[in-house]
Structure formats: C-alpha cells, structure tokens
Amino acid sequence: MQLNLWDWVVIAVYAVLVITIGLRAGRKQHTSEGYFLAGRRLKWPFIGASIYAANISTEHFVGLAGCGYLTGLAFGCYEWIAVFCLIPLIVLFLPFYIKNRIYTVPEFLERRFGSSVRLAFSAFMVVLSVLAKISISLWAASLVFHEVFGWNQMAVIWGVGLVTALYTMKGGLSAVVFTDAIQTTVLILAAVIMTAIGLHQVGGYAALRMKLDPVMFSMVRPATDPDLPWPGVFIGVFLVGTFYFSMDQVLVQRVFAAKNLNEGRLGATFCAFLKTLNPIILVGPGLIAAALYPGLAKGDLAYPTLLKNLMPTGLLGLTVAGITAALMGHLSATYNSIATLVTRDFYLKLRPCADQDRQILIGRIAVLSVFILGAIWAPVIGRSKSMFIYLQTVSAYLMMPFAVIFLFAVFWKRTNTPSVLACMVAALILCPTMMLNNQEHFLPFMNHPLLRPWLHGAMLVTLICMLVLVAVSLLTAPPPAAKLENTTVASLWGRGAKAFDEDDMMAVKTPLFKDYRLWLTAVSVGTAIAWYIMR
Question: Is 258:98 a contact under the CB 8 Å cutoff?
C-alpha cells in the first residue's frame, strides 16, 4: 500500500510541528530542575495529556486491537481499571512526592529506607524500561509500518527511535510535555476515525454484535479464564496499575513537575478521563477486524489489516501520524525519565558536586544509550504470542511486589530496610521462576484451575513477597524515627502529626469546578456504571 501526496503532507506537517516545538522547548533549559522537571511549572491539561501520551504507545494500538481480535472487549479492563489505579496517586502518594520536593521516585525510597533501596529500585526501573517500554514500542511501530507499507522493520526501529531521542536529549521534560499535548490530540483523533470508519463498514454497533459471539462483548470473565480471571483483574491488575501510575518514574515524573498540588491532581484526573475512551477506540478495532477479516494468522495483525484496507487517502496519513505520535510520546517520556534516574540516582551519588551542565550532559548520554539497547532488544518481542500479553505478563510479575513495598512503606511504620531488600530478592527469584513455569509447567501445584491463570500466579508471588517483608520487619530492628518524617501516612495526617499545610504543598484555594475531587468522583462513578452495564 502506498501513501499519496496528501498523506505525506499530513505526516510532514505533524513531524515538523513536533520537532520544532521539541527543539524550541529546549532553548532555555540550563538547570537540572528545568531540564528534568520543566521548572515545576506545569498546569493540569499538559500534565494529563503527557501522562496519557506516556502511557499509550504503539503496543496499545496494535496489542489491544490484537487482544480484542482474539478475546474480545474484556482486555479493555486494563484501561478502565486504570481510572481506579490513579486514585492512590491522586489521594495518597502525590502529597508525599510534592512535600519532599523530589526528582525521582527512588529518592522517596531513600528518604524512607536509605540509599541501598534507592539504587536497587532505580536499577530495576531502568532495566524494566528497556525490556517492557522502549523495545516493545519500537517493535509495535515497525510491525505496523511493515505490514501496511512494506517498510523495513529495522529501519523504522532505528529511524523513529533516534529522532525521538534527539529532541528529547535537546529539550528535556519541557520538550516532552509540550509535544505530548499535540501527540495526545493526534493519536485520539486518529483512533476515533479508525473506529468510526470500521463500525460504518461493519454496518454499525448492532450489526457488529450480530456477527460476533456475545462473550466478545463481556468485560468480566470467569475466575479460571487464562488471561483475564476476574480476581486477577480486580486485585492483581489494580496492584500493577497502582505501581504503574503511582510509582513508575515514567508517568509520575509529570506530576512532580506540577505547579502545585491541585494542578497535579487535576492533571492525573484528566488522564483518568482519557483512559475511559480506550476500550472503545483501541480494543474496539480488534472486534471490528474479527467481524470483517476472520482467520488472520496472528491477532497483532488486526490493526495493520484495518489500516491497510479501510483508511482513505489523507486520513491514512493522519492515522500514520497518530501511531507515530503514540510511539514518540511514549518513547520521549521513557527516555527523559531514564535520564533523570541515571543522573539523579547514580551519577550524583558518584559526583555530588557536578555542575548543572554536566548533569544535563549525563542525562543526554543516558537517553542515547537506552535507545540503542531498546532497539537491539526489540526483535525479541516479535517471538511472543501477543505483544500486549507479553507486556502485561512482565509487568504483573515484576510490578506487583514493588507495589506492596510502597504501600507498606507509607502505611506501616514498622517496615524497614532489611525487609524491603529481602522482599526485592524474593521477587527477583520467584518472578522468573513463575514466568518460566507459565511456559514449561514444571510446578504441579500451579496446575490447579484457579492457579493456572498467569495473573493468579503473579498474585501468589506477591503474597509470598509480602509475607517475607512482614516477617523480616518483625525480626529486625524498627526504622529510625527520622526515616518516618514526611514518608508515612501517620507523619502527615496521623494523630500528633504536624498540621497538613496547604501553602507548604504549594496549593491554593480553588473554586468547586476546579476541585479535583468533583471531577475524580464523576469519572470514577461513570466508569463503574459503564463497567456494570458491560459486565
């Protein structure tokens, strides 16, 4: 399939706009706070759009549509449960982060547990970003462009990845956030157009339901479902999402840069609203492909097939721009966050007196390095049955135990450094073992129908890690009182705690229509009602 002149015009306008804004945003970035946190001056629309763009990438276009093609609308549960996963960030963790004026999530762990935990967690996040963020996004984009246009996959991986790395290296978080605002608009518009055209081709929603098995439209699956058991979704996926939105540097860095606490909370709430659209505009095309093109060799071919067969001239260019926007938004967010982690958590530990220019240079070197590593690993993703299931499996096993660490850190004052390190070691031993068992089935007790789903296996690992954390905490000395100040719920809101000072949190009095609680309640209740209707 070939792009015509108007398609290339649309793509060119998009590319020039994004690169120009990205480079202009970097012209005045001469301090580490300006480069890594955009000067802590972001307002809620940019925060929400940037979180969304950082979260959505080409693996969502391709992977969610692929899962919809194979399984149905139920995989949209990852998107709707994200609304509730954002609540711990908005209500609980964000006040801690802004109160402590930190640059990275591992900095918070250092204040609570010490430098050893900070370095271990930071290293984990860098590795996870290469294996489950950069590489999978690059592979998904290369798959789309190869299937639709016949472009060489490795050329796409190295070309788009490098361009994104270059403007991220130049502009820092300001470049990322302001280009994300454009990319969010483009990717949502492209996804809506694709879904609308597909529904029209099928004959409408009623015709779609007639052509597919009714189970394809159910958002809740039995407890023994191999991929989406309802206990695993409502407990396991919630824990994964809580980690992802409250503790993953890639997403949380945007709210670190908020102008004040309320702006950060409003931004996260805006992201929650945008996530409610995804089951329709990202999973929905997979159902449309199942109705129009049954019998595809692989589910991940559903979105490229729709793109190749349905999109007219001009709109095809817009859709290509939308997919590219998703890729570049996610990549730039990941690049910048890794640069922040490497510079703040590793380099400044070795060179605490490094000047601002040197910090920015190290951040740029880190961006280039992780791009190269991600591009090298990307072809490995192509060997998996489904890239979205690959992503969620890796995320579930590795993120759930760390979510437990954070929750215990803020809620249980007895949690100490040895217990956290023991929990990390247990996770790093058990997670690969259980992931391997999903393929080889060498653990007989895991053949029980309720333990066979991989989400339940991840929950079992998390439970064991939690017991290790509790046991070691009780068997070792409690943490010093200084480590509990401004790092536990009791220290900010408990009896005898210093009064919660809104001015100290850089917040201001806001009218009702600007109060995050109004909008968070509305989007949460609306999502719960929609989920009940689609159960």
Answer: yes
User: By C-alpha distance, which of 341, 348, 349 is closest to 366?
Assistant: 341
pLDDT given for residue 506 in this prediction: 43
Gap between the Cα atoms of 262 and 44, Å rounded: 8
Which tens digit of pLDDT belongs to each residue from 358-378? Answer: 888 888 888 889 889 888 888
Q: Tokens at residue 464, please?
A: 């064991």
> Domain residues of the chain, as ranges?
5-394
pLDDT in tens, 471-497: 999 999 999 988 888 888 887 665 555
Q: Please tell me the distance from the alpha carbon of residue 253 to that of residue 344, in angstroms, as a whole number.
A: 13
CA 143 from chain center: how many Å? 21
Which CATH code for domain 5-394? 1.20.1730.10
| Cβ contact 506:76 at 8 Å | no
How many Cα atoms within 13 Å fall on the side-chain side of residue 513?
0
* DSSP line for 458-503: HHHHHHHHHHHHHHHHHHSPPPPGGGGTTTSHHHHHSTTPPP--TT
pTM, 2 dp = 0.82
Residue 499: is its pLDDT beyond 60?
A: no
Instruction: Output the six-digit token pair for 385.
Output: 């049955």
- Nearest alpha-carbon partner for 117 in 435, 408, 497, 354: 408
Q: Which residue has the tokens 């990307």?
A: 378
C-alpha–C-alpha distance, residues 260 and 529, integer Å: 31
> What average pLDDT does the structure give for the chain?
83
Spatial distance between the Cα atoms of 267 and 272, rounded to a whole number of angstroms: 9
| Most distant CA atoms of the chain, gap in Å | 70
281: burial class by Cβ within 10 Å (0-12, 13-18, 19+)? buried
User: How far is C-alpha 430 from the geometric centre of its chain's CA atoms?
Assistant: 23
Mean pLDDT for the stretch of residues 272-280: 91
Say which amino acid occupies 14: Y
pLDDT-based confidence at residue 507 (cuts at 50, 70, 90): very low
Q: Do residues 297 and 143 touch, judged by C-beta distance below 8 A? A: no
For helices 153-202 and 135-149, the axis angle rounded to 10 degrees is: 70
3-state DSSP assignment of residue 79: helix
Tell me the C-alpha to C-alpha distance, in Å, between residue 379 and each of 124, 140, 157, 357, 408: 22, 10, 9, 35, 38
Task: Give the CA radius of gyration of the chain.
Answer: 22
What is the C-alpha separation between 61 and 326, in angstroms, rounded?
8
How far separated are the first and last CA of the chain, in Å rounded?
Answer: 39
Give the residue with greater pLDDT, 163 vs 422: 422
Return the residue matching tokens 């064991």.
464
Q: In angstroms, rounded to a whole number, what is the distance separating the alpha carbons of residues 243 and 239?
A: 6
pLDDT band at 350 (very low <50, low <70, confident <90, very high): confident
